[in-house]
Amino acid sequence: MTNSATTPSELLTIAVEVARDAAGTAYRMRAEGVVVAATKSTVTDVVTAADRAVERQILDALAALRPEDSVLGEEYGEETSGTARSGVRWIVDPIDGTVNYLYGLPHSAVSLAAEVDGVVVAGVVRNVSTGEEWTATAGGGAWRDGVRLRCSGEVDLGQALVGTGFGYDAARRAHQAQVVAGLIAHVRDIRRLGAAALDLCLVAEGRLDAYFEKGLAAWDLAAGGLVAAEAGVRVAGLAGRPPGPDLVLAAPPALFAPLHDRLAALDAAGGP
Q1: Measured CA distances, 141 to 18, 149, 224 (Å)
Q2: Where are the domains of the chain?
């Protein structure tokens, strides 16, 4: 593989190789025992030693394979190993669902995406505990274990199983709880599983009908968002805005408008 390779399929091949190795490291470190290395936004927003070790492993692997690319990671921020002139940037979440990982709950993942000139074109999400792996390329569909994915065909919001997540700031959680309280009577049920990238992949294959969350960063969204979009999911913000920190809403076309309007009425993108 040469550094000039920038097709989505070529970048995905690299992403899968790197993510599988990284997930193996995360799995082994979890078995050896988790050490909390630091906290971030609040005392409940933890960083484990594994988060840092796995991201460093990914950065080193990408620097060796793609020395002219740049990398944006959750733990180490923006890094450039060389000239960063290729137009390719990798977006890394070393362990999405760190609290699940800390507690030994089997819902955490390595998420790795490649964007070319600002557009995400390839992504992989690999569950650390189960080895489940979701992949996608722009225009090439979304896949898990060789099966092409298609999102839920549900058309009735009242029958939809909807995923969401909460931030770590207490004031934001309080606002998000009010949104959930206003929504829960209008859907089948709500799930909070604790790993955005995996939640987006579950929407891609219909194991969740839809998902929304405020406060997602680029590393939470990049790979899982591509997997969802390539499975027919509409991934956007509210009121025509792109998906991002204000809100990410991922839903099949038939559910998007009614869920969007309900969330807008509940001011899901507002609050702290």
Answers
A1: 21, 8, 13
A2: 8-147, 157-265
